[in-house]
Structures are given as C-alpha cells and as structure tokens.
User: Fold these one by one.
Assistant:
Number 1:
Amino acid sequence: MSLRNILFGFAWLGVLLTPSMVAAERIKDITSIQGVRSNQLIGYGLVVGLDGTGDQTQQAPFSVQSIASMLGQLGVNLPPGINMQLRNIAAVMVTAALPAFAKPGQNIDVTVSSMGNAKSLRGGTLLMTPLKGIDNQVYAVAQGSLVIGGAGAGSAGSSVQINHLNAGRISAGAIVERAVPTVLGQGEHIHLELRDTDFTTARMIVETVNSRFPSGTATALDGRIIQIRAPLDSSQRVTFISQIENLEINPAQGPAKVIINARTGSVVMNQAVMLATSAVAHGNLSVIINTQPIISQPGPFSERGETVVVPQSQIEIRSDEGNLMLLPGAANLAEVVKALNAIGATPQDLLAILQALKAAGSLRAELEII
C-alpha cells in the first residue's frame, strides 16, 4: 500500500470520528474496578531437549551451573572439575501475569525467553520453574513443551520463513499455587477508574448510574475516579457491579491528537483537527492558511434580507515545481496532509511542517512523534 493511500485512509478516519457518530459504549469497556488487577510473575529456569541449538556453555557458564545445581537436588553428584559441553540446554526467563481472583490449581499461560546465546528454543521442554512475585513469594509453578511461532513452510516446501525463535509460549503452562487477595471495594464503596482521564465522561457515568439507581449512588471524585455505593453482601455486590458494567453511555470526544511515525511518514489523528491562520515555508514547499470573508447580499429591490459576512478558511500550498493547490473550506489537518502528499512531500517534509505548525500555535492538537 502506498504512503498516499495510507494518509488518505487516516485522513478519512479523522473526518468520520465526529461527535455525532460516537457510538454508545458499556461502562465496563472504558473503566476498571479499583483493586481488580493482574500481577506480574517472573522466574529463572532451564529448557532441555534442544537439537544442538542451546547455549554455548563456554560463553554462558550460568547454564552449566544451573544444570549442575538441578542434578544435585535430584541426587546426581557430578565429579568436581568436570567440563560439561552441553548444546541441548538453554537458560531462560519465564514470565506470566497472574489474573485477579486466580485460585490455586488454575492454569495460566507463560512466556519463555532465552537469556543466553541459544540459537533456537524450538522443540524444547521447560523444566519445573517457580514463578515469584514482587514480594519474592512463589505464586505459580511452570513446566511444559514450548510452542515457537514464526516458523513455517510454503506450498511443497518451496519457501521457508523463520522469524524469532528465542522466545515461545506454553499455553496453560503454569499452575497457580497461591492466590493474591483481591479486595472488591472498601466498606460500602467501590471505585471505578476511567482508562483515560476525562471529566466529561466521568460526569456522564455519574448521571447514568444515578438515573438507573437511587440518587447519590455514584459520585465523581475527580476526572478519573468514580465512587459507587454498593451493597455489603458479596453476592449482591457482584450482581450490582454486573449491572453497572453493562450500562451504556456516550463517552466524551477525547482531546485532538496527532501521531506521526517519523520513519514511515504515517499520520494518525483521532478527529478532525483544525488549523488556525498561519504560514509555513519549508524548502521548496510553502503552506499558507488564511481566512477569506464571503459576503452574501440580498437581491436588488429586495425588501427583506441583510448583508451577511461569513469567514471561510482557505489553504494554499505551493512548491518550486509549479504545483499549486487551493483548498477552500474548513482548514483541517486531513486536507493539508492529503494535499502535501499529492504534490510529492516526503515524510521528513511532512514532519517538519507539522512541527512548525504546532510551534506557531496553528495546530490545535497534541502532537506525538514515534
């Protein structure tokens, strides 16, 4: 897909996201319940059964130390000074996320990543690895065969694609051994947290909840936290939270934001971003944004009507090659991006022009460069 098509698609995306077309969303899709969260787990382990693609023991001595320590715990005592040249083991880091309300005996997925110089973990088996939390307590134990993505063959073996082979996953590869206590609210209140801070959306949630339940059930503490008065009985509280989560609101339109990928020149905007009067000169390109008055007068001998002056924005883009584009109408960023691309502006040109417009105060949006 060409850069022009990409920019054109993103421009239309910004035009389509107008306030009148914002669909209703469930409260559960834009908020989370305070205290209901996952916890990160980490562990160090060994992968065995590799087909000569493991760590080179001379350059990764911790692999040899780990296998010797493990064998000692299993009752196998190695002679002192032995030099093990193993190519089918690899030292790995194992990570997982322990979901909220996870109980002992449940299974969770784990990710296994090589930390030595192994060429591939494909075909390996992770040995029993304890997974610890931030408090250094063991919360799960992982073990199992790795599944490595990124390797595949084409029809009749004519083509082979191999991507990253030093990381893999084990589906349901860890068993939870300890639960993390999760407090579902404090006392008679629970707290909803907006994923994105917005005072208008917080007000809408309060109004929606109070219209469905007794007045005063919901109170906005700030632009992110909404305090909800909930039943004390745990069963009733779960039912109450379920009803709250499924209420629908029309969230407020977020602040105007423009994201630019400096390498590819891709531009993403979350709504129609307007531009104020300004002029930018960059190399052989110039962009002029101004406002022209349009005068509307009543017809001759008309007994009614009056003269009306309506300001109308106009974008003028020029280049040294003689290209000229006049864009009457609303001065929005989508039109400028399409016009610049049409006359052959490079991603670097586009980036410099948008930065200049932002610095001049003409670009009325947050500009983020990635």
Number 2:
Amino acid sequence: MKNRYGLLGKNISYSFSKGYFTEKFKLLGLHDHSYENFDIKTIEEFPSVLQESNLKGLNVTIPYKESILSYLSEIDSDAKQIGAVNTIKFTENGLKGFNTDAYGFQKSLEPFLKAYHKKALILGTGGASKAIRFVLNNLGLETQYVSRNKQKDTLTYNQLDDSVLNEFTVIINCTPLGTFPDIDKKPDIPYEYLTNRHFLFDLVYNPSKTTFLKLGQEKDASICNGLKMLELQADRAWEIWNS
C-alpha cells in the first residue's frame, strides 16, 4: 500500500479505529490506503514501527498518549498544553503530535451543557482525562479529578457524597470500566445522589449504554457515550494528515 495509517497501542484488537478508517477509505474510493493496528507491549518498541514503509500517520491510544511525547520532533500547542497526543503526522521535519480527543469531546459535549453545569468530576487520571480537563476548563467549568488512589489535588471515590454530587453536576468517565466484555463494571460513585440536573458522559462506547450511563438514566440524568467523540476525533485526525 502506498499510503499506510494505523493505531499505536497495547491490546488493541477491539479497536474502533481500524474498522472506521477501512470503511472510510472504501467510501472515498482510496484503494491505495490502508489502516492497521500496531500493537506494542512497551513504548520502547515504537522505533520498530517507524521502520515500516509508507507510513503517513498514526493514531495513539492507551497507554501511550503521554509516553509518546519524547519520540516527537514537534508538538501542536494544544497537545503540548494538554500533555497528551493521540494523532501523529509524518512530516518532512519529523513526527508532529496533535490531540484530536479535545476536539471530539468538545463537539460531543456542547449540545448537552446547561447554564447550571458549572463544575465537573473527571473519573480517572490517564492520558484521555487530560484532554477532557483542557476542554472543560476552556468552556469555563471548574474541574476535579477523581482517582482510586489518593493524589495531590485529586478526590478519592470514598470522598464522593451527596454534597459533592450536588455541586458537581457533570461527571465524565475516563476509565475503561464497563467496557465489553466486563459490562457489569462501573465507576464507584454514589449513584443514589444523581438527579435530572446531572449530565453523565462515558468515553466508553462498547456497549453503547454502559452500567454507568444506565444508572444515571434511571435518575433522569442526561447521558452520552463516547462514540460521537471517537468519530469526530478520527475525522479531525484525517484532516490533519491531509492538510
């Protein structure tokens, strides 16, 4: 293939990207384009991927969105601010990193935001959560990370109570909890305190309605999964590769 693209990650056979781009290339009649998974056990294996011929661009997923930074020649200003990269463009001057998660998340989120959504809980502290915080802060929301382990400036799940949930009415799940096949798993928040003023966003898209979202819906909260975000970030990556 003359134009090869792919996804860099670990244990990514389930990934959305390969099917999405393969279908996209077919619809666009791009028969000399391919998209494949580059499944590596550690980031130190990344240079071996660069030996592949005709690579034009890569997406990056967990757990390498942050560790990939040291391998890049240039980083887009937003991605630099976020501290995570999910899109790499191969240029004459080397590898340039971008973050299209932020774009995809913002466009997915905006239709659901209400005037009273002032504060957001971000569940999880991995690479994706950094793009989420970047967007929420840019939109004027106060944010608070929630993690299983006590860290600086981070709440733990057992600190979440009715007063916290009364204040933080936007809750974003950036953990993989609830992803198929472990669909019964969910973030350990006190769901009994959710109301119709809450908005729950899950970056997980398989299943389309996770237990986290179902329990929110049962309390009349607004809900959204991560599929639209994924499609939008993928389309934005495609624009970057072709610009």
